[in-house]
Amino acid sequence: MENVSVAVRALDPITVAGLTTILGSDPGVTVTTSREREHVDVVVAAFEEISCQGMDLLRAAAADLGRPIVLAVRNITEADLLVAVECRVMAIVSRGGAADGRLVAAVRAAAAGTADLPPDLMGRLVDHMERLHREVLEPSNLTASSLSSREIDVLRLMADGLDTAEIARTLRYSERTVKNIVYTVTSRLQLRNRAHAVAFAMRAGVI
After folding, report:
1. Which residue in 32, 84, 109, 152 is deepest, having the highest Cβ count within 10 Å?
2. Hey, what domains does the chain have and what are their CATH numbers?
3. According to the lineage, what is the superkingdom (predicted)?
4. Helix (H, G, I), strand (E, B) or coil at 28
5. Cα–Cα distance measured from residue 111 to residue 195, given in angstroms and rounded to the nearest whole number
């Protein structure tokens, strides 16, 4: 199993020390203090809730290291969730469950390029964006125009939690076609991953 190099970010040294101990207990994870992106595979950040300082820390980590972020947090709002996704957060785990193996599993998933947003958080994000569309975009007669109808169909099913095979069956596409659609969207719009593509579509008000 390939070793994963992790940079830890938090607002206090006690949290940093705790995360370092949890992550360092796994033989396949190395905690690094390097600030060079070539020496870091994944960033782990932890907060009780995302304050302005916490959001600044996430933005700085995304800008400086450019690596996927795993966020351990106890409370998160819908607005914070959207910004977190834009800051390269690919996985979110409960702060209280960080020590039971879920944090290390999320780190490995992020290192492999797999996003992992809990269904309840994705549902809250969908609800938030539906309200935004209904209360802000529709009254102003605003719509998004950078996505085709079939791209929107795929992104909508992704937001509902379907995987590639399920999307292909639902839309009667091949799995290759679904993957090509996702690749085209993320490449054309310079989006980082599937979660970012879903967030973009939600923010644009098309799903």
Report:
1. 84
2. 4-116 (3.40.50.2300), 122-204 (1.10.10.10)
3. Bacteria
4. coil
5. 15
